[in-house]
Structures are given as C-alpha cells and as structure tokens.
Automatic annotation (TrEMBL):
Organism: Cardiobacterium hominis (strain ATCC 15826 / DSM 8339 / NCTC 10426 / 6573)
Source species taxonomy: Bacteria, Pseudomonadati, Pseudomonadota, Gammaproteobacteria, Cardiobacteriales
Protein name per its UniProtKB record: Uncharacterized protein
Amino acid sequence: MIHILILIALGLATYLFHNYQSFHEAYLRPWVVEQVNFNREANPQALCDLLAEDVVVVIKDQYTRYKYDINGGKSAACTYFLESAMHFKKPQKSQNGYIQDKLENYSVDHADLFKDYADVTFSTNVNGSVPDLISKGGDILIGKTTTKITVKIPLFKEAKITYYEFDRKLTQKLDNN
C-alpha cells in the first residue's frame, strides 16, 4: 500500500513540476518569441502547425491596403497566416541564429499548477527604427500588435495553441530616414 502512495505522490510531483517548468517565463517566453511572434511572417506553416484542431481564432489585422477580420478555426487561421506572410519580406534571424525579443507587456496567467494551460498576452511596438516589417513593395510599416493566446502543454506532448487572438494596425512610415 505504501508503494502505491509513493507512486501517486511521485506522479503528482512530476505533473506539478512539469506545469511549473513549462509555463515558467524562462521556457515559455523564448518559445513565444520564435514560434508565435517570429513565425507569423517567417514561417507561417510552423505557426499553423501549433494550432490545435479545435482552436478558436479572432484576428483583426489592417495594414496598407489589406484588412482581415477573421472569427473562425484552424483552416481560416492557416489561410490568413500564409496569405498575410506573402505581403512581407521574410524576417531573418541574426547570423548566430538569434531572434531579438521585442515583446512588451508580456504576461502569463497560470495561477493554478494543476492546470496544463495558460493564457499568454503580449504586444509589440513596430516603430520602424529597426525595420521589423517591410512589405514586398519596400514599405516600412509602423504600429502596434497585441496577441493573446492560450497554450496547452499536456504531459509528454507538444504545446498547442487552443485560443489565438491577434490585433494589429500598421501604417506606412512616411519618412524612411
């Protein structure tokens, strides 16, 4: 009987440690920087692959002459990711493979260690000082993006996004100096 109780305690400790580690900023923030924020334009198919089959997607995106207003699921999001990314020059990693962390107002809401999901919110300020988003036509875009996601990381499985909300409004930078 004591062996069963020890196994249950070890299993519970493993589960709680997994949830603590998975949603800790040291692990989750680099994942969000690369897999969610960078891959939106750099590798939209990789971002699409992170979406759960039953994901809820809310996208409001407006830049130059393009406007997207999407309330749907995975197929609508994947179509949007691929189509929107075609309008931009593909962002590049630095020579050593580093992706600059430009996230602002980053927060993770994971108060209960017994839950295998967390809400992540962040924004980016596209100010044009270092051209972040450049259209295929060469226009430098400025503005702000806000992203809210729910990330589910089950034990022994890959992370999946079950809720994805993206709001972006960009305008063309008039002075290229």
